[in-house]
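Why do we bother with a discrete structure alphabet at all? Because it lets us treat a fold like text: something you can write down, compare, and reason about line by line. To make this less abstract, here is a complete entry for Flavodoxin reductases (Ferredoxin-NADPH reductases) family 1. Read it the way you would read a sentence in a foreign language you are learning: slowly, and without expecting to understand everything at once.
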Amino acid sequence: MFKIDVDNINGKTESLYVYGEHSILTELEEHNVVINYSCRQGHCGSCVLQLLSGDVIHQDCLVPLSQGEILACRATPITDIKIGVRDF
């Protein structure tokens, strides 16, 4: 089981406990943490988050990402992680 620390995403700061079997987007939805998304396939970039700590497995995507950025729809936690909104 892994812990996802949500750092002020849409006003929520909390810790979620997950098995790491689903994407971060799916895990957030199951815990009522709402983020932007559209395609769920790594094509649109709507669900970009900042990975503040920890490690994820990130499946291929078409969106160019900067250091520390992940797509919630394509990333699955493999350790405890901390995520936040992307800094622009």
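What the structure line is telling us, in plain words: The longest strand covers residues 2-9. The beta strands are 2-9, 12-18, 48-53, 56-58, 69-71, 75-77, 81-85.
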